[in-house]
Amino acid sequence: MIDYRSDNTGRAAPQILEALVRANHDTALGYGADDWTADLQRRFSDLFETSVRAFPVATGTAANALSLAALGPSWGIIYCSEVAHINTAEANAAGFFGGGVKLAAIGGQHGKIEAGPLAEVLAGISPAQLHRGQPSAVSLTQATDLGGVYTLDEIRAVAKVAKRRGLRLHMDGARFANAVARLGCSPADMTWRSGIDIMSFGATKNGGALCDAIVVFSPDIADGLAVQLRRAGQVWSKMRFASAQLIAYAENDLWLEMARASNRIAARIAAALRDIPVARLLAPVEANEIFLELPDGAMDALERDGFQFYRRSRTLARFVCRFDTSEAEADALAAALRRHLGSATAPRATD
Ligand SMILES: Cc1ncc(COP(=O)(O)O)c(C=O)c1O
């Protein structure tokens, strides 16, 4: 079996597991009052070139929902892409933790929100209107849920429209590392220097073990969020072990190295796809995910060959590369696609 189902099917990086073992000595205060959690604040502040508050959380869903809940009132409307994970796959956790907050989808290509449609939608809701809820925040997924990456200019264009209306900005960075690896920019440029107030910083999918983080760039949000996290059961009593994982993740650019590795594998497969026009990409491969429109029968044939992946519809397959996916596994997939699709005809539109 060759597993392309998700970047959470893989191992954790040995450096992260070793950090857990190294943290296992003596006593340490609970609930984040330990030395590791203090160190995490310094490390992440260095990484982001500004003073941040970093909160380890158990999952990306917790990071997203609690970040969004911190951004506005319970009658707020949060704008996101139609395909955003918060909109499609988190059981409306944002609405739950936000006390009724509503998500509203905005159009754009490749899983992005675009500034123009956002401006149009905002112009249609006046601050005096009582009947619709009020816009409160925007959430961008970076890298996007279709494997694309916002450029800094694209983030800034959305931020400009949002800030003009006083909205806050959240980034779902479940694959932030892949996006930074792709653009080669600094984490600071992709976040607070582009207007992001708060980010869900993914680690688990990118070689982490058991936690992600919320990174707060706008200090006024942090104290209220800390209380919400406690209410939501997202404050470990043995927090040192959560913080130790994230310190190891950031240390020596491990997070970036792992993302570069999974991006490289995805790019290798994408390069092979250029010779197989019948396998149509839904979005450019800019991070570690590949969304492919395939003709009838192709998915069955790939599964018979031992490839595992998700069927997103009758004709759409998703392949995700992990930090530990090998070049040989990439070449095996490319060869199988060539074998099965060399003489195939184009698929019908996605159903
Ligand atoms: C873009 C994105 N955000 C958030 C999440 C949520 O992460 P978790 O499954 O850890 O809650 C995922 C998981 O698939 C994701 O792909």
Please supply descriptive tags for the structure shown above.
351 residues; alpha/beta; Aspartate Aminotransferase, domain 1; Aspartate Aminotransferase, domain 2; 7-stranded mixed sheet; 4-stranded antiparallel sheet; 40% helix; globular; binds pyridoxal-5'-phosphate
Task: Explain what this protein looks like in three dimensions.
Helices cover about 40% and strands about 15% of the residues. The protein is an alpha/beta fold and about 350 residues long. The chain has 2 domains: about 90 residues, Aspartate Aminotransferase, domain 1 (Alpha-Beta Complex), CATH 3.90.1150.10; about 240 residues, Type I PLP-dependent aspartate aminotransferase-like (Major domain) (Aspartate Aminotransferase, domain 2, 3-Layer(aba) Sandwich). The chain has a 7-stranded mixed sheet, sandwiched between helices. Strands 9-10-13-12 form a 4-stranded antiparallel sheet, covered by helices on one side. Strands 1-11 form a two-stranded parallel ribbon. The longest helix has 20 residues. It binds pyridoxal-5'-phosphate (PLP). Pyridoxal-5'-phosphate binds next to helix 3.
Please provide the ordered H/E string of secondary-structure elements.
EHHEHEHHEHEHEHHEEHHHEEHEEEH
Superfamily at the CATH H level of the largest domain?
Type I PLP-dependent aspartate aminotransferase-like (Major domain)
CATH class of the largest domain: Alpha Beta
Tell me the strand order in the biggest sheet. 2-8-7-6-5-3-4
Helix/sheet category? alpha/beta
Bound ligands:
pyridoxal-5'-phosphate
Write the CATH architecture name of the largest domain. 3-Layer(aba) Sandwich
| Number of helices, counting only DSSP H or I runs of 4 residues or more | 14
* Uncertain spans: none
Biggest sheet overview: 7 strands, mixed
Mean residue pLDDT: 96
Helix content: 25-40%
Enter the CATH topology name of the largest domain.
Answer: Aspartate Aminotransferase, domain 2
Please report which band the strand proportion falls in: under 5%, 5-15%, 15-25%, 25-35%, 35-45% or over 45%. Answer: 15-25%
Q: Note the overall shape.
A: globular
What is the CA-atom radius of gyration, in angstroms?
Answer: 21 Å
- The total tally of domains equals 2
* Number of strand elements: 13
Question: For the terminal residues, how far apart are their CA atoms?
Answer: 28 Å
